[in-house]
Fold this sequence. Notes:
By secondary structure, this protein is an all-alpha fold.
Amino acid sequence: MTRRGLILFGVMSLIWGVPYLFIRVAVAEVSPAVLVFGRTTVAALILLPIALLRTDYRPVLRRWRWVAAFAVIEMGVPWVLLGSAEQQIPSSLAGLLVAGVPLVATVVAVVTRGRDRVGATGVLGLLIGMAGVAAIVGVNLGSTSPAAFGELGVVVVGYALGPAILARRLGGLSNVAVVAFSISLCALAYAPVAALQRPATLPSPGALASVVVLGLVCTAAAFLLFWALIEEIGPVRATVITYFNPAVAALLGVAVLSESFTAAMAVGFGLVVLGSVLATRPARAKADDASAESAGVGAGVGA
Length: 303
């Protein structure tokens, strides 16, 4: 890997590991819908002009139905549910559970015939990964709302389905334009809800800064940098950041918010990572499909 690739990899691992911390800070003072509206508005103000001025966005508009579906499944529903879940559970726990996205993505790929089959290694990986998720959930189930785990489950499924739509229904289109229009649709959709749920008093500087950082750094800049990373090291290797982001989230939650991190959670996370690596290993070489699918995964790992 080149020096530029290493730098981009390190930056992306950090950028897509910190959202859980900022989400936790923001939803302590604003509703999840207000947070999503603020985050997507900031990101849209940056990405939409780039898409309109530097890309051919007309083919994207012709597939507006799939763009809307991608916006709902990858951003609109997961981001508001993630914010709601983090009102009840620690940010470190949320990050660890979202690490299960590759496991669900493998199942989605098989069901939708993105992969022909899962071999014995893949099945073993799925079982190991599920055991890891069970370990993480089990150690926290007594002290955490079951509803929050349900919301995170929907988040994980959305993050797994989004890349499939991006790769198979929006393939060949400008990634910048697709994401810019998707984020803009989310901002428009949440505007009336955010107006109704606006806080009675001005949120603290920390909460406001969290919203801005989520939109500016963790969304707009993150997508641009991720595509640069894909160009530098390829889509398959780029998605290895999926396994680093939750670790960053957990470390920040413990260091900044004084959240607990138990040995059982560490073991569970290790099992999830091991299971994901085994489950996502292709049963047979299909380079084009693997690259297209992997390129889309980055849209789902950024919280």
